Backbone:
């Protein structure tokens, strides 16, 4: 944020999502003065947060829900102004991220109905048919990225046969990149870059190449 390190967090009180300027936090900590951060959301238990940069602007997605609920509402934020972008997406989600596709902001989120969908954050409406159905996406495991210069998303969870898998989709043409990648134990996290996919499963981690 303008050259200053910041953190986006869910509050330990379960009712706030805040943005913290770490330089201010460190200075106030040293002086003994409390710093409560800049509040984005005042109500709702924070399930997940994710940040990225779009057109030079720091942008965040948040998912908040009532306490005890595993799925919540997705919101998109301009962190420079701390204002919400567009409309809240009420479709219950546990994992979401944002990326630019064909010049437009697109939110990718799972759903309690077993889908992974694209959403228009300006209208809070789904874009086309789901990328996948009859799946269970791991919490906080939806990550957008660029693969070979094209917008993509990677995720992990259980497929329709309840196998532990990782997936990747090209978001420009909505095509799955390769088959479901099956693993012998639960897949916890994924990350992709320049033709490679990192997968954490069980107590292990591997890096896979598309070549």
Residues:
């Amino acid at each position: 944020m303008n050259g200053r390190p910041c953190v986006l967090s869910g509050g330990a009180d379960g009712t706030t999502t805040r943005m913290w300027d770490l330089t201010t936090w460190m200075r106030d900590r040293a002086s003994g003065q409390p710093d409560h951060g800049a509040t984005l959301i005042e109500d709702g238990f924070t399930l997940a947060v994710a940040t990225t940069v779009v057109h030079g602007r720091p942008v965040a997605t948040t998912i908040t829900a009532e306490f005890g609920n595993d799925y919540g509402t997705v919101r998109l934020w301009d962190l420079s102004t701390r204002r919400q972008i567009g409309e809240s997406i009420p479709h219950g989600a546990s994992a979401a991220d944002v990326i630019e596709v064909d010049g437009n902001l697109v939110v990718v989120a799972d759903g309690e109905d077993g889908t992974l969908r694209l959403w228009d954050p300006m209208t809070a409406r789904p874009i086309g048919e789901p990328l996948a159905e009859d799946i269970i996406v791991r919490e906080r495991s939806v990550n957008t990225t660029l693969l070979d210069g094209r917008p993509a998303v990677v995720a992990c969870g259980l497929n329709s046969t309840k196998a532990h898998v990782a997936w990747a989709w090209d978001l420009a043409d909505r095509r799955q990149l390769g088959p479901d990648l099956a693993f012998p134990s639960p897949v916890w996290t994924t990350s992709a870059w320049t033709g490679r996919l990192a997968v954490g499963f069980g107590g292990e981690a591997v890096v896979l190449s598309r070549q």
Summary: Helices lie at 22-31. Residues 22-31 form the longest helix (10 residues). The chain is about 5% helix and 55% strand.
